[in-house]
Amino acid sequence: MRLVADCFDVLQFQKVLVINLPERSDRRDAMTLATAVSGIDVEWIDGVAGKDVPDRVMPVDSLDKSISKGNKGSWRAHMDALQLWVALFVMLRDHIL
Fold first, then answer.
1. pLDDT digits (tens, 9 = 90+) for 15-54
2. Do 40 and 67 touch, CB atoms closer than 8 A?
3. Domain boundaries in the chain?
4. What is the rounded end-to-end Cα distance, in angstroms, of the chain?
């Protein structure tokens, strides 16, 4: 399994983000085992329950559509991950300049 980690080293990934609902510890446990065996370091992003995402924060083009609570939560968690990625990119870029 070291081959997987070597591929990540060659590709020079700075971070691997994993989104996980806090109440799904079974999935976090499985991912923790998989990453430990493969040698990949990850950073955890808390998933978001769809019931906690108000309609007013959804993208404007989605307001007239019926979107499941699961998809709303997934969208919000991915936006949180994207914000972290952008912050990391800006930090790295400032460091290079």
1. 788 999 999 999 999 999 988 888 788 889 999 999 999 9
2. no
3. 1-47, 49-97
4. 36
